[in-house]
Amino acid sequence: METTTCRVCDGAVSEFVDLGDQPTANGFLLPEEVSAEFRFRLAVGACEGCGLVQLVTVVPQEFRYHAGYRYHASGSVSHREHFAADARHFLEAELTGPDPFIVEIGCNDGVMLGTIAAAGVRHLGVEPSGNVADIAREKGIQVLSAFFDEDCAARVHAEHGPADVVFGANTICHIAHIDSVFRGLETLLTPGGVFVFEEPYLATIVNGMAFDQIYDEHVYYFSAASVQAMAKKFGFELVDAERIAMHGGEVRYTIARPGARVPSARLAELLAEEESSKLNEPATLAEFGRNVARIRDDLVALLRQLRADGKTIVGYGAPGKSSTVTTYCGIDTELVPFVCDSTPGKQGRLLPGSHLPVRPPADFADPYPDYALLFAWNHAEEIMAKEQAFRDGGGKWIRYVPEVEVI
């Protein structure tokens, strides 16, 4: 159901970009499932009150997270290193009491909690997708299969006691019922505890033209200003906002009870930067919408020209955002015959929306194409280093964020 009312403050939401009818980004299909594929209008608007950028239409969470969920957070070396560092930070800075306890919302396959468990610290992952939850359990991680909300938080508190840290990575922006999350935090967090979450940053998307970060799972697109307003609305305080490199540029937010911690200098700096750059202003967002359409046209024109010249093109990586760009741009098998991805659960299936076949990485070199369209651009350095033989043989990469270019 579409809405023009902010899910946090009930302010009016003004739409600024429409990416058309789209599938669920991780709904990888078998050929016989194509005719029944779910679609919805993927449009984004900004609240005129608190500034929160959000989807106009939210896909029910049961459609997005289920036993067939295809995303595994441990699939990237950089992800494993990043979340191990997160865990070490919590162990050193927050989980230092006599019997500390950490809860992770959306723990996926346990990529962060594995380090916590190895340290012998009490923990619980809350993960609604049964298949990835089972992978985490096989690693010795304690997991509750559920969607996190106030009822879930009360259950966790009753069974395990209060949490010193509640953490979420690329998860909190997925939860439409954010009001229930904060009511759960009121119950679950210790008086001095913190709610820490890392999410795609609105400035990265708008200034960096990362429009493919917009898809069904990402209900909210946070800025420091909108998170500050959201925390205050629900009786908490934003005390820190740190830029991190994940997914091309995210922000790690730290929220505490009012007065429990002194807000950091870097939070003040980021808020000032957002104001000076006019990040949340309607004119900035409208210009972003126009540029998205331009990049679509540039990318399609390039692909068509290359194919007309007899060049071969293969897609590289099938992250959720690949469905946004292929569906929005109308990229079909005439332009890109298939996509290679290392996730076994995606191989042999079709990319949502565009229905490009997903094949294993071995097919990328059998034989190498002339060009590779890099959908997993946030892992560009890692991928290009891995595929040096492709470059050595004359292969070229195509990127479309922040602009269409051949590398």
TrEMBL record:
Q: Care to name a GO molecular-function term for this sequence?
A: methyltransferase activity
Keyword annotations: Methyltransferase, Transferase
Q: Does the keyword Methyltransferase apply?
A: yes
Start and end residues of each Methyltransferase putative zinc binding domain? 6-62
Please state what the protein is called: Class I SAM-dependent methyltransferase
Signal peptide residues are none
| KW Membrane (keyword) present | no
Annotated C-methyltransferase domain residues: 246-402
Which top-level enzyme class is recorded in the Swiss-Prot or TrEMBL entry?
Answer: transferase
